[in-house]
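Assess this:
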Amino acid sequence: MEIATERLLIKPLGPQYLETYNEYAMNIENARYMCFLPSDTVEESMEFLKKAEEEWLKTAPQFYEFAITFKGVHIGGISVHIEYGKPVLGWIINLKYQGQGFAYESAKAVMEYFSANMGIRYFCAYCDTMNTASYRLMEKLGMKRVKKSGGRKNRASSEESFEYKYEIEL
């Protein structure tokens, strides 16, 4: 499965992206608001990338991990995880490429693709309440904030934080 936009090619994430994945996945500043990142080791990253590749081979994957590529360069990732039967969006862009609309462009394309090709019309997304860029992106996508809750544990932090939940029905 590949999704093309005006500037991006969004395709299955796998071990072939280890080096460029680690540019953002092992960067504490880049992943400070992520629950499952930063990766601690190259081996941990490779294990995740292999798991993502294996999931793509299943008839009914429970998660879809995509590489976002721009001019042939892997610049970030976007995912759709099926949790309790509902699709949850997530994304991360390498710091070098942030602020250029790539997260918006890829999220919009993924939602449109899943809606048109898989009949999925509902999406939700979560972010740390301090992650202004992420919740502004959700709002730009047309998502509505539906919940604020505590107990979020970002891997790069020793403290719990709060998170927002956003939803959209296409």
Remarks:
- The radius of gyration is 15 Å.
